[in-house]
Design goal:
This protein is mainly α. It is built from 13 helices and two strands, in the order αααααααββαααααα. The chain has a two-stranded antiparallel ribbon with strand order 1-2. α3 packs across α9. About 30% of the residues are buried.
Length: about 350
């Protein structure tokens, strides 16, 4: 796929313009968006991604369009799973005031795009220089899949500061409370960092970790840098609004990590097969991207349906248990108690 420099330039210009508008909206009116507003924005970004994929098909061919949609779906699914970590960081981790969470998320998106752009460039150069790098990418994804399968769900419900954030707390003077959205504040003539700075550092480090998983995953689908970058960009666009839209729904997607483990494991195997095909004389079959798209869609659909069904069943059982508890603790009808007292009095008089 021969992407002209002006296409790259136009893509980056539009992306920067969208981020600038988004940042202007957040800074001008810091608040938590309504469900209706978040739904409209997420729908807009999803529609733009679909339109881009269709346009790419007309401009570069159906295979490139399939590559984009497959990569976008994988990256979008990983972004949804990563939102759970953002919820922990912004909530129980640092207790960021709700009105400032949009700003933190937007900065996180910008950092994610920056880090992924760097990793995409490095990955493309590594792939171009040595096909054996696909063994490394495959190993990373298989290890990540194994971690997702064996992860302790109770541990995932708590955010634990990493070593870098703890080091910043020890080395840099920080305040105990937020000062609006300021990163630093001067108190008694001395400059202090606010918890907002620690949140930004935590989000940035988390973005780097996420990129180490997502970039090998999409390189297992396509090695075209332009498609890799645009799939990541569209997956991240709207992530801010998605946070407010499905924050409560994430608790119901209890099997999402397991579904992603299957997807990442599948792509990891695909990468290893591709590496064997490129670096050995073995007749190793390669998995077509269209097959990958079908496998990914089926896996994620089953994951979503099973999660919602399990959550619905758990809710029904909880409601039934609560109803039984209320019945056991609710006093009987007053007339019944009067009848019982009359009967007791009659028996006493006979005695």
């Amino acid at each position: 796929m021969d992407v002209q420099p002006w296409v790259w330039g136009a893509t980056l210009t539009v992306l920067i313009a969208v981020i600038a508008v988004d940042f202007f909206v957040v800074v001008r009116n810091p608040r938590a968006p309504s469900m209706r507003e978040a739904t409209l924005w997420v729908s807009l970004y999803v529609s733009l991604a679909i339109a881009f994929g269709i346009g790419l098909g007309f401009a570069a061919g159906g295979d490139q369009s399939i590559d984009f949609f497959t990569g976008w779906i994988v990256e979008y699914s990983l972004s949804v799973d990563n939102l759970f970590i953002f919820i922990l960081i912004l909530g129980s981790g640092f207790a960021v005031p709700p009105r400032h969470r949009q700003r933190v998320l937007l900065v996180g998106i910008v950092l994610a795009l920056l880090f992924r752009g760097i990793f995409i460039a490095l990955g493309a150069a590594a792939v171009e220089a040595f096909a054996g790098v696909f063994y490394l990418f495959g190993a990373i994804l298989l290890y990540t899949a194994w971690k997702l399968v064996t992860a302790d769900e109770e541990e995932d419900e708590e955010y634990k500061e990493n070593a870098a954030v703890r080091l910043v707390r020890r080395v840099l003077p920080t305040t105990d409370r937020y000062h609006e959205a300021k990163l630093t504040v001067r108190i008694d003539g001395k400059r202090y960092f606010t918890p907002m700075m620690l949140v930004m550092i935590a989000i940035g480090l988390t973005d780097i970790i996420f990129a180490l998983d997502s970039i090998p995953a999409i390189f297992g689908i396509t090695q075209e840098p332009y498609i890799v970058f645009t799939a990541n960009a569209f997956a991240l666009m709207g992530l801010r609004q998605l946070y407010f839209l499905i924050g409560g729904l994430l608790d119901k997607l209890i099997y999402l990590s397991k579904g992603l483990a299957v997807v990442l494991g599948f792509i990891g195997v695909k990468l290893v097969l591709h590496a064997l095909h490129e670096t050995t004389d073995l007749h190793v079959p390669e998995i077509p991207t269209l097959v990958s798209l079908v496998v990914i869609l089926v896996t994620l659909t089953i994951t979503a349906v099973a999660s919602l069904a399990k959550s619905g069943l758990a809710k029904s059982e909880a409601d039934e248990s609560a109803a039984r508890t209320r019945e056991e603790t609710t006093p009987s009808d007053p007339s019944d108690r009067d009848d019982d007292l009359d009967a007791a009095g009659t028996n006493a008089s006979h005695d």
